[in-house]
Amino acid sequence: NCMGTEVALSYCRMKGWGKNNCHHGEDAGVVCSATNTPARLRLENGPSHCAGRVEVLHHHQWGTVCDNGWSLVEAVVVCRQLGCGTAVSALGLAHFGQGSGHIWLDNVNCTGTEAALSECQARPWGSNSCDHREDAGVVCSDTSGQLPLRLANGSNSCLGRVEVFHDHKWGTVCDDTWDLHDAAVVCRQLGCGMALSAPGSAHFGPGSDPIWLDGVHCTGTESTLTECELSNWGEHNCGHSEDAGVVCSAAESPGGLLRLVGGPGRCAGRVEVLHNGTWGTVCDDGWDSTEGQVVCRQLGCGTVLSVAPGTRYGEGTGQIWLDEVNCTGEERDLSECRARPWGEHNCHHVEDASVECSDSSITALGTLQLLNGPNRCAGRVEVLHNHMWGTVCDDGWDLLDAAVVCRQLGCGTPLSATSGAHFGRGHDPIWLDEVNCTGTEDTLFDCQASAWGNNNCFHGEDAGVICSGNS
Fold it and tell me: What is the distance between the alpha carbons of residues 261 and 245, in angstroms, rounded to a whole number?
């Protein structure tokens, strides 16, 4: 019996937990106004999240929008949905580069008042007469956080060919008068430390038109390249064989381009890498302890303890920079491992990879945890084996098993042994099945059970525990 003002259903008046005179033919439901959730949207390959190629998320996959009928009216809706102000321009013909994968929308026709692009009229999802040469783009008025500078074609984001963003396009810089003073400003602007060298003659390969700048003269103290003495945009007497480059100190600094986020310290969390001046995540396709070992070594965090399943440390935002990373385990830096090209992936953020290293506080928790509950003494049972956290099947799961879990965690006595993924479904693997404890064992691993990974279960059967402790 709710008043309607409560913050959670559990705050409403009701009979005690489990007390009822009902059957499942009387199960209650709800339909909310937000059931028609707008499709997520992003702008790719521009200088900020408010300018770039339009991409929409459908069926857990990002895809592009065809430029047939694309106009400023549609761009207005995109900018509004992203909170990026008003539309400056609506661009076609893959102005921000060709996307890959699905072309989700074609013949989009907005009135301009819609809250989301997916509310506009369009052909059915995936139905189009286009190819990626017709990918639509948008530039919005809000360019806060814009970083109109990048280093291209290097092994990481702190070395490469200098490219600047102007008039809605990336272009190169000519090496006439290019020196360490100019490079110092680039490194400072990108947060990449000091300048080590300023190579010219297209050291990092020739770019493509336009060549935006020539005769750059910096003192070396400027905050951004555009504060330096410059020629007029697009005025030059160069070819792309003269494209300027930069090598910054962070390009050789172990761990400088890698971090673990959302964990209890710097040695456990969601893996994020720095590329083109922007932090982004790593997809967990093929991610295992070999890649984890490289991350821990690069960060000086000891050896790998576990490679946690997707979203253990929350979903990241923005770019997913790496996918299908394949390390030998001997590399000093994650960027030395084989992977798909930067930014190419078939993932979404529920697949963000995580790592837990031996120098983290995770080791104090041991090889057993209760997750997704109100405190550390209640939740889904997860065990650590072979560098991976996994769940326990609820076949035969009872209070005797729960008693051992509560004792092992120092959480008092068992109140409940939950089944049916009461605390939500975990991620593969399912490590234990047919657990059979007497209740006197010191740890869950002393109990009888099927062999590690041998089970006939799915994650809808993940076991949980509620202990009397609530620390």
Answer: 31
